[in-house]
Specification:
Layout (H helix, E strand, L loop, with lengths): L4 E7 L7 E9 L2 E9 L3 E4 L19 H12 L9 E5 L1 H12 L5 E5 L5 H7 L4 H8 L7 H6 L13 E6 L7 H13 L4 E6 L8 H20 L4
Parallel strand pairs: 5-6, 6-7, 7-8
Antiparallel strand pairs: 1-2, 2-3, 3-4
Helix pairs in contact: 1-2
Length: about 230
Amino acid sequence: MNGQIIEKFPFPSPSPKVRLFQVTYFSNGLKVKGLLAEPIIVFAPYYRGNQGGEGEEDFGLDDRNDAYNGFELLKQHPQVQKDRIHIFGFSRGGLMALWTAIEKPAACSVVTWGGVSDMFLTYEAREDLRRMMKRVIGGPPWKKPEEYRKRTPLYELERLRSPLLIIHGEKDENVSIEHALRLEKMAKRLGKRVESWYFLEYGHHFPPMINKKITEKMIAWMKASSWNKKE
């Protein structure tokens, strides 16, 4: 059963208030791994092929099922309110977060921070990733446009039902601000509920204290979205 936990082992936690577990769960026939935090529940999938999980990553196609089934894992957890699940993704995780929110309309909200939204743009901007992307995806965008399109959530954003928050540093050299701008433009064009927080002075990683403040503000936004979700 997708999302069902098969194994659960304690994992070192940085806080005495948080219990961490490395779990193995089912995802479309594969046994994949993830990290679970309790008692305030947070789950982060490692994605197939990582940390001993079965299968191989394919950069935003079949491996996004591991995020979808992570959502199902939370829904099955006895400590989780099934109608109060939020989705957050950073960097490449932003791509997975967007796809999960599109496929799981019950999500209360989705936040992408420094997140990828357009795989064509990733290939164009990240010369250091091109060899990997050609190997995993099967070629460059001009040879395999449909493969890049299938991995780009902008083309399916019309199906998004959850409120969307975009956080991005304008000096980001890993994931350019253009990803956020394209996402915001498309969301507004489609009439989605979207809010954007852009930070002129920061890049991909924010200073720790700034990161903490923005995270606290983000959580407050999530909580407000739980009561004001646009159907």
